[in-house]
Amino acid sequence: YCFGVRKTLELTDKLLAERPDRTYYMLGEIVHNEHVIEDLMGKGLRIVQTLEDVPPGGVVILQSHGSTRKRYRELEERGLEYVDATCPMVKIIHDRIREVEAEGRTPVVIGQVGHEEVRGIVGQVAQALVVKAPDEVTPELFEGVRRAGIVAQSTFIEEDALRIVERIRGIVPDVVFHDTICQPTKTRQREVEAHTRRADCVIVIGSRHSANTMHLFHIARMINPQTHLIDKPESVETIAIPSGATVFVASGASTPGELIAEVVRRREARDAGPVRSWENRAKNPGA
Q1: What pTM does this model have?
Q2: In Å, what is the CA distance from 70 to each residue of 50, 119, 120?
């Protein structure tokens, strides 16, 4: 888990354990991993899609991806108690885009249109442009924009974000870029790129609904076509891996450790030998 996801899950587990007399409602998925969500639901957490589905007395847990200012107002208007589990890194992005607006610049968000985090970022200001690829940056889109302030979705691919910024600089005279891609995301992306170049086969563990997982998958797939995305341990059994091949296993920021361990265990059992882990080496260069 990354820091933000771990913080959210620890907070949610604590609430469910310490206040069993209260009913907690998850507005959407607080993290993008089906196994985690199922576990939380088994502990009593309920899923709703709108605040209208939360009865009086219920407590809403806001997802780690962040929420719009409108949602906070709606919570207050309805008199609902809530727990804000927004990732601290995402809150920094909210601060930055509000600063951009206050400076009189046109707010620009680099990210996936419709993603919860991007909706939350855009929802901090009156209006913002959203771009997810360099070829979306056109003179028509930025017509009349003289001063722009850019932030990025916390899990966006760093290299792609920098290309988008350069395209915008070629059109808009005055551009300020706040690099809000979180450091754990950058580290994970760089390690995936480096290790993928050393591997015969790559397995990425995580949900297709997870933006950071899909980014890791695409980074690896561009380097090595023998890259596979799985979301459950048994799926690893269907991947044909030649004997003696070097296999690199990576995971998204919301993938549980026990799921990763089970995937490795199944590979060990199938290959009849231990799997050498690069994880410890990444954490401890002297290992």
Answers
A1: 0.82
A2: 13, 11, 9
